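Please fill in the sequence for the structure shown.

STRUCTURE ENCODING:
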């Protein structure tokens, strides 16, 4: 998932879909961003994988859907809650050197 996320961010979000991603890199007053459309897109894929994997007893498809969902939850907690602090009521702090280093790298990469 990390390679896929890196690839999508570099070549799709900073490429032909920059129009949807640009507000994520700019200051704005709104709580929502056009960038949040990506969340809807990827969660729809995960829901479909889980649904069809469970419905047709396809364990690899179900596992892929669960994996995408878990990655999305972790990404949301790290990126939106811990780094960008979009959920002010959730006070997550990086508890390890590894998380602090990732946050610093994300701040530099912007």
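FILLED IN BY: designer on duty
SEQUENCE:
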């Amino acid at each position: 998932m990390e390679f896929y996320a890196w690839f999508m961010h570099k070549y799709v979000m900073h490429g032909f879909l920059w129009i949807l991603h640009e507000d994520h890199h700019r200051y704005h007053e709104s709580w929502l961003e056009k960038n949040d459309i990506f969340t809807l897109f990827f969660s729809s894929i995960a829901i479909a994988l889980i649904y069809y994997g469970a419905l047709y007893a396809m364990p690899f498809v179900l596992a892929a859907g669960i994996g995408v969902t878990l990655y999305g939850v972790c990404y949301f907690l790290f990126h939106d809650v811990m780094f960008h602090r979009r959920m002010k009521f959730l006070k997550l702090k990086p508890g390890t050197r590894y998380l602090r280093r990732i946050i610093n790298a994300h701040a530099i990469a912007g």
